[in-house]
Amino acid sequence: MYLSFFITGTDTGIGKTICTLALIRHFQQKNLKVIAMKPIASGCEETPQGLRNEDALFLNQQSSLKIPYKWTNQYSFLEPIAPHLAADLKDEKIRLGKVVFYFEKLREKADIILVEGVGGWRVPLSEEKTLKDLVQLLDLPVILIVGLKLGCINHALLTAEIIQRDGCILKGWIANACDPTFESEAVIEDLKRRINAPLLGKLNYNSDIFEQMIL
Fold first, then answer.
1. pLDDT level of residue 85 (50, 70, 90 thresholds)
2. What is the pLDDT of residues 118-158, one digit of tens each?
3. Which three-class secondary structure state does DSSP give residue 124?
4. At 4, is the secondary structure helix, strand, or coil?
5. Best CA proximity match to 200, nearest among 39, 77, 192, 208
6. Residue 50: phi, psi to the nearest 5?
7. What kind and span of H or E run contains 147?
8. Which CATH topology does 3-213 take?
9. Helix (H) or strand (E) holding 116
10. How, if at all, do strands 170-176 and 199-203 pair?
11. Calpha distance 31→197 (Å, rounded)
């Protein structure tokens, strides 16, 4: 069995990594070998081993197989800014072929690969490329993480629309309660009617256990 998904979000800081970790556990409970990637990461920390990203480390540690950090995270940037700007500061160019190379290496080892994006769907990776170019190159169906907070209806509908307009498959969306004060049930029901893809699962605030999941 081989299956993969690209995980994107309505914004930065809305819980893509929490949801990806929950997806890893979900598939591991089905006795599947799961490996997660976060190919591009800003806001890394200096360590004796080099730049490391906290989210990428979580994904690396939770994956079913022990793999080198570089196989999880190919581009690490110190500054917590958009990756193309961080790459410019480092005088480095994000090359999508490098990500594809490591993705193909992992595909030989796992039943499922989860690739977590950076920022939102239209975040630039260079002057010419955005995140959607990487997804198209990997040819992966997309799972959209909707951070449930004020403004999320607009963000979710715009993102879902442009994913499908870009010719990518929107497998579905996950409702993540990233704001504990936000009343989300009516919003979730509204989005279920408006997004042309199924609600796959729901996560409560700071939980990595799905309230429900249909994958």
1. very high
2. 989 999 999 999 999 999 999 999 999 999 999 999 999 99
3. strand
4. strand
5. 192
6. 115, -170
7. strand 142-147
8. Rossmann fold (3.40.50)
9. strand 112-116
10. parallel
11. 26
Q: 164: closest CA among 196, 190, 134?
A: 196
pLDDT value at residue 65: 95
7 SS3 class: strand
pTM: 0.94
Q: Cα–Cα distances in Å, from 58 out to 19, 37, 185?
A: 12, 10, 29
Residue ranges per structural domain of the chain: 3-213
- pLDDT for 156 equals 97
Which letter does DSSP use for residue 128 in this model?
A: S
Residues 6+ apart with CB under 8 A from 109: 33, 35, 65, 67
**Which is nearest to 81 in space by CA: 29, 135, 119?**
119
Q: Which pLDDT score, from 0 to 100, does residue 2 have? A: 67
Backbone angles phi, psi at 167, to 5 degrees: 85, 10
DSSP 197: S
Active site residue 38: yes
Residues 20, 18: Cα–Cα separation, whole Å: 6
Q: What does the angle CA 211 – CA 17 – CA 135 come to, to the nearest 5 degrees?
A: 110
Asked whether the beta carbons of 191 and 175 are under 8 A apart, the reply is yes
Place of tokens 């199924």: 198
211 DSSP assignment = S
Catalytic residue of the set 16, 38, 132, 202: 38
DSSP code per residue over 68-93:
-HHHH-SEE-SSSS-HHHHHHHTT--
